[in-house]
Amino acid sequence: MIEFARLSDKTELSRMWQNIFLEDREITELFFEKIFDKAVTPVIRQNGEIVSSLFLLPCKIGEFEGKCVYCAMTLPRYRGKGYMKKLLDFSYDYCRDNGFDFLILVPAEKSLFNYYEKCGFERFGVRKSYVWGSSDNSSDKFLKTDCELLFDGKIIDYWQSACVHYGGEIIEIKDFSGMAFTDDTTVIKNARGSIKGIPEKYRKSGVKIQGNIDFGETESPAMIRTENGKIKRLKCFVGITLE
User: Fold this and answer.
1) Which residues touch 68 (CB under 8 Å, ≥6 apart)?
2) What is the pLDDT along the chain (243 residues), one digit of tens a residue?
3) Which of 52, 134, 177, 214 has its CB 3.0 to 4.6 Å from that of 83, i.e. a possible disulfide?
4) Residue among 38, 34, 30, 41 nearest 8 (CA)
5) Contacts of 176 (CB under 8 A, 6+ apart)
6) What's the CATH fold of domain 2-123?
7) Where are the domains of the chain?
């Protein structure tokens, strides 16, 4: 039976998260301190123990509000029983019944795309961005997006703190004048702080890089489940990955 997690479940969920994803305790504790009260957390229990769970974080795509699946996890000995699919179906029904327009997630690895497709999700969005403002605006690789996947400021602060904790940097380039960007300057950043292709002169802590231009990546970073055809047609910049 699926139910919502209680405040008293924080310790059990944190320990489960640390063991499955090898996450540092400081990061899970920061999540439960800063973000847990913003999340909807369906869980499945067996004999009083939480065996499968996920967090639904509030987010927006343009004018539409929805939920983002975060940290979907099942204890190893309970995998293969269909628990995660039940939680995802429950989460989608929750969104639909409570007036939200979509349920979105970012698979942690390519092999999961097929699994989520079986759970009713479709590929969605672009991740790698090319900064608008380079001297070569004539190239056909400059493709403007319609909108960006947006999260509450506290959620972004949490992800940035996790990035810095694991040795990453948050980069912001404010002055693009005179810079000739190439594909080599593509930013790839995840919650564990791996960043590639940023010019050395811009590697400094405390700020972040932003952009909304796709340069032709064929792989969608996210997957979405929605009955709203307008959302499916949007070119959405998904600027954060949740690995």
Assistant:
1) 56, 57, 58, 59, 103, 104, 105, 106, 149, 151, 242
2) 899 999 999 999 999 999 999 989 999 999 999 999 999 999 999 999 999 999 999 999 999 999 999 999 999 999 999 999 999 999 999 999 999 999 999 888 888 999 999 999 999 987 654 443 344 443 334 446 788 889 988 988 888 787 777 765 555 544 433 334 443 333 433 333 334 444 444 444 333 444 333 334 456 889 999 999 999 999 887 865 433
3) 52
4) 41
5) 131, 132, 133, 134
6) Aminopeptidase (3.40.630)
7) 2-123, 143-237
Rg, the chain, Cα only: 19
User: Roughly how many angstroms between the first and final C-alpha of the chain, as a whole number?
Assistant: 28
User: And the tokens for 103?
Assistant: 């349920």
pTM of the model: 0.79
Find the largest Cα–Cα distance for the chain: 63
